[in-house]
Queue: 3 jobs
Job 1
Amino acid sequence: MTPALAEYSDEELQTPAPKTLFGKYELGKLLGYGASAKVYHGWDAVSKQSVAIKSMNKQRIVTGGLATHVKREIAAMRRLNHPNIVRMHEVLANQKKIYFVLEFAEGGDLFSKVAKCRFSEDLSRKYFQQLISAVGYCHSRGVYHRDLKLENLLLDEKWNLKVTDFGLSAVTHRRRSPSASSDGLLHTMCGTPAYVAPEILAKKGYDGAKVDIWACGVILYVLSTGYLPFNDSNVMVMYLKICKGEIRFPKWMSSELKRFLSRLLDTNPQTRITVDEIVKDPWFRIGYSDAELCSDHFEMKDVEEGGWNGGLKSLNAFDIISYSSGYNLSGLFGGRDGAEMFLSTVAPEMIIAKVVVAAEQERLRVAKKKKGWVKVDGGHTRNFTLTLEVKRLTVDIVVVEVRWRECESEPGPEIWKCRLRPHLSGLIYRPDGPVGSD
């Protein structure tokens, strides 16, 4: 389950938010807060487009054991671009805070809507169709949400559904997911009690796609009835009901919907309905049309690709947040062996020129040089290689990544840190961040 953290204190909540973030976003009222984050309404300073800004204290993340969840959310969101998924525009950070700049869903969450009254079968079907469109897309991209619930389903200004909060997601790669064991199944206990699938409770490993489908079934049941299918004030009793699959359908529910829900809430994951089977189901297909998507929907573009870069590689903010020592995140996510990064406001060509001069002064050889990249080695006498690459982060800021290979007679890190880096000390930019403590 989600690691517990103390809620924000009254003093923290009363501390005024910064008025602007990095000169790019204006902050408005506090929309809500949880154990590890506060969410503000904001605006793009230029376009005035509304955004939601999720603010997280790095120290609170570290002490609360949520670093892995932040990494998961970034890894998941960078893969996803779908009409029914909240879009993450970018990630920003200073020495104290991490900020997710998200698409603003002004309609609120589905939980608050269904809490007032249950939905009609047609309206429930509409939102379930949008949910499955998003979930099926996530699964095709190797992302399993694992915490689908009404509170994580938002509505935009046109009342369309938007899935959010991928902090508990599992992201698979070509290699086996770190969350998976040798049997290829996931074993991490996570999710919200009322929505958790029986196979998670059995602790025998589970398929991420199957548990998402179970949660979708719970969501459809709540939309249609206004209450949970498995509920009890005693959590252990509720878990027992989930494992047994004890569901009671109201008399007024259509037989077609009862049949469909029984397939979604099948306690046996092997026979539980799949996404492919869902979209072919007669009840589901009423009024359904596949989302019209183009290839552009499925690509996460670098900022201003092909614009002000001038041929220089740009570095997506999602990559920066993962490992940038320039933003002092190494204590959160860990550094990289044989590598170091820093930020600079100096022009890339000036950085490369300084490296060339420094290498010559230290009697190292410049083996190769091109735009935004230089390779330095020790010549024939020393087995040492260093590469320095400059990548664009913003119009004014670049990221410099240095990598080295060990030298037999002298440690690689010492050659870089003690002999070359001192020549570049004036280039390093350490953002204080115009953001106050919130």
Note: The chain has a mean pLDDT of 77.
Job 2
Amino acid sequence: MKEKIISKAAELFLKLGFKSVTMDDIACEMCISKKTIYKYFCNKEVLIEQATVIVHENLHQIINTIISKKYNAIAENFEIRKMFKEMFQSTDTSPLYQLKKHYPEIYEKVMLRELNECHTVFKLNVEKGVEEGLYRKEINIENCIKFYYILIFSINENTMEKNVAVQLEIQALEYHTRAIATAKGIMELEKQLEIFSNN
């Protein structure tokens, strides 16, 4: 039951917002009593914290699935962006923005977790792109990774509307890719931008 509550809470928090969803809403959605929820979670903050862990695990499981499909480095980044767009299309407000505004302590824990995971994903992507001849060999990989995740996280934690954040994320990806791409990489970027805009 505990896992079902966390799963349903995560779904509702992402769809309707961390602040607006109440324990009553979750109980009503699951056709259980609020008392049942409080049996497993002493307050809403504990439930939010555990729900963000589930969201994190699900996201990175999907990212790992995308990586395993052996796309080239640039196509891989666009597939990951597409996944985020589809996953959060039912929400109006950026989940990171909501967390930062209403639950700053939980937000700090989420960010520490995400930065570690994202550093690994971004590094592998850049190294792969260099091997494929899509990214320039002389780039400073650590700085490149740092610049990109500062851009992406800054967009999500400071942009309230999710659809605006999605557009900015694609522009940030284009900006990032153009900064490190070879001539071959630019051609692949143009191809991916066209595919993305047609979807």
Note: The chain has a mean pLDDT of 90.
Job 3
Amino acid sequence: MPRAASPKGGAMDDIVFQQIVNWITLGSIYALIALGFSLLFGVLNIIHFSHGDVSLLAPFLALAAVSAVGSALGDAASPAVFLLALAIAIGLTGVIGVLLDIVVIQRFRKAPAMMALVATVALGIVLRELIRHLFPNGSNPHAFPRLVSGDITLGRFNVPVFSLMVVAVSVACVCALFLMLNGTRLGLHIKAVSQDRDAARLMAIDPGRIFRATFFVASAIGAVGGLFFSSYAGMARFDFSVDVGLIGFSAAVVGGLGSMPGAIIGSLLIAGLDTLVQAVVPNGASYRLVFVFLLVIAVLVFRPSGLMGRTLVEKV
């Protein structure tokens, strides 16, 4: 006759299940940021290091949109107002990404990679400081609501609806991105420009238009990740983009810059390590980034092109 599970064993199962949920939720959020890094590098061959800062503009734009739309409609607490504010924030973030490309990043398309890297690092600092000084009380954390609340019971486990929504929306974004890249005219043009810009021009493809479209898509997907992260943390902070941007970039590097599947795998690996360290290591929250970047160093030492990246051979 089988024995009933002990209360201690049941509690341990609950803890393990909760950590798995945290892992998948964080991995989905990081993947949305990492996909933007890989997409932009794959098309432009430029590391847009301020992509994380652009993505984390979205929570502040959403809070501003809630205030503006709520004042106009007289009902700031309405769920419809909040959903509209989220849509506005995602769209505006995409537009800001395009504007940054036009004003700054396009100047470095033919420049050495180091110049573009330094320029985008400086651009990220500018964006953070603008939020800190222009947004009301921008230096302080701002409460950001959980997008959905409640739990769903699966067997004897409770799964937050928020986590299910994050995973579902992330999967939908990834599927939409893959469909766009492989099944639409825009996707074919993006691939053509990424492989040979001069040949694309000969085929009447405007690389400038493709760059702008790519920046909009990458920034909008990153904005979804930024909104999810602030909702997961329960707040929006001007310096969140430092950690989240570095983790998103690291996930793209671990998976292989330019590889969409690699960005997803890298995000899940980093989120899994992040969650494991916080659950197992004493005071793990303080040391989680140490372990994350040790993983990044190990991957770069043993496989510089990333887990799914391809080594490029240049003939001289």
Note: The CA atoms of residues 50 and 124 lie 4 Å apart.
